[in-house]
Design a protein that fits this description.
Elements: H1 7-14, H2 29-32, H3 34-53, H4 63-75, H5 80-87, H6 91-103, E1 107-111, E2 119-123, H7 125-147, H8 151-168
Antiparallel strand pairs: 1-2
Helix pairs in contact: 4-7, 5-6
């Protein structure tokens, strides 16, 4: 099983004294400056994200392929070109990813409804199950980490989540 240490413990292992600061009380002013906070936040988000990405479904897909499944799950069927644009990858790379996912039975390529020269990529039931299972495992991992925190720490994270959503929307 992947590292099950809480994110705080993982962050303390290599982020220095700043990460080891107590989670309650006054935060030193130098840690709240945008440059310093940005660096610490980037490291913490990257580490948590890496831990989450280790939690995978039965197919144990690389993150790029899982990303394709989640796009199809959220937006529905689309052309390989539209998928490449959405995922900001080159069309030949997307074509290879779609072919691999089709071989695994997670997507299927069907004829485009108006242009017979094109195909549309659609999520299969197995692909939808893979998305659901991966999300379930990731949610379970994160829930376990959060259950190790105090209610005040979880409240702080809830407020921080609102801010991160606002930052991501810019």
């Amino acid at each position: 099983m992947p590292n099950s240490a809480p994110p705080a413990a993982t962050a303390q292992a290599g982020a220095g004294a700043a990460a080891a600061a107590p989670s309650s009380g006054t935060i030193p002013k130098n840690r709240t400056r945008p440059g310093a906070l940005g660096g610490e936040l980037r490291v913490a988000l990257t580490r948590v994200s890496r831990c989450l990405r280790t939690q995978r479904g039965e197919a144990d897909l690389p993150e790029g392929q899982f990303g394709v499944l989640t796009v199809l799950h959220k937006h529905g069927a689309m052309s390989p070109g539209a998928l490449a644009e959405h995922e900001r990858t080159k069309p030949p790379s997307m074509t290879r990813m779609v072919s691999t996912l089709a071989e695994l039975g997670l997507v299927e390529k069907v004829e485009h409804p108006t242009d017979r020269r094109q195909v549309v990529v659609r999520l299969t039931e197995a692909g939808a199950r893979e998305v659901a299972e991966t999300r379930r495992r990731r949610d379970a991992w994160l829930t376990q980490q959060l259950s190790d925190l105090t209610s005040d720490e979880r409240e702080t994270l809830a407020r921080a989540t609102d801010l991160l959503i606002r930052i991501a929307a810019r």
